[in-house]
Amino acid sequence: MSPRLSIRAVFYRDDKILLCKHHDDRGFWYITPGGGVEHGETLEDAFHREIKEEVGLQAEMGKVLCIRDLISDRQPTTYLPNHFHQVEIFVEGINPIFTYEPHKMDPAQIGYEWIKLDDLSNLLFFPSSLVDIFQHKDFSNVYLGHKL
User: Fold this and answer.
1) Per-residue pLDDT for 148 more than 60?
2) Is the peptide bond before 102 cis (omega within 30 degrees of 0)?
3) Residues 102, 100: Cα–Cα separation, whole Å
């Protein structure tokens, strides 16, 4: 089975980051907006579609901030499908304008929030190993490999 390609948008405003809010038996948890790239779709097309669906945004796609592998067989969790491998490309989101209502949120998604960067380490945020990178906006290493 081939890896799934995913685009993830990173929006900063002042000292906050925009995150999709989810809820399940773990409680509330957060991820950056984004999702899988569909066959025949460019990364930029997927960026625009995903932010429109999940947070109702229109924005420009900026530079690639970092890339990581998500490999479920190397994760200590039961929340991912067996043998799931996803390559996630995190890109900068520029000039966000809320112009739409979110209309195709992920199954566990209940909304979105601007979260203070200082609060990120106190939340159930995925990928948790990237909290420090997101808080300090330190994207000096583009390829991060497999991180939890």
Assistant:
1) no
2) no
3) 6
Please say whether the beta carbons of 59 and 92 come within 8 A: no
- Name the residue with tokens 């990581």: 68
Q: Identify residue 106 by its one-letter amino acid code.
A: D
Q: pTM here?
A: 0.92
Length of the chain equals 148
pLDDT tens-place string over residues 42-68:
999 999 999 999 999 999 999 999 999
Residue 97 burial (CB count, 10 A): 10
- pLDDT, one tens digit per residue, over 104-129 is 998 899 999 999 999 999 999 999 98
In the chain, the domains with their CATH numbers are 4-146 (3.90.79.10)
Residue with tokens 């530079």: 63
Beta-carbon count within 10 A of 117 CB: 16
What's the Rg (C-alpha) of the chain? 14
**Single-letter residue type at 59:** A
Whether 54 contacts 20, CB under 8 Å: yes
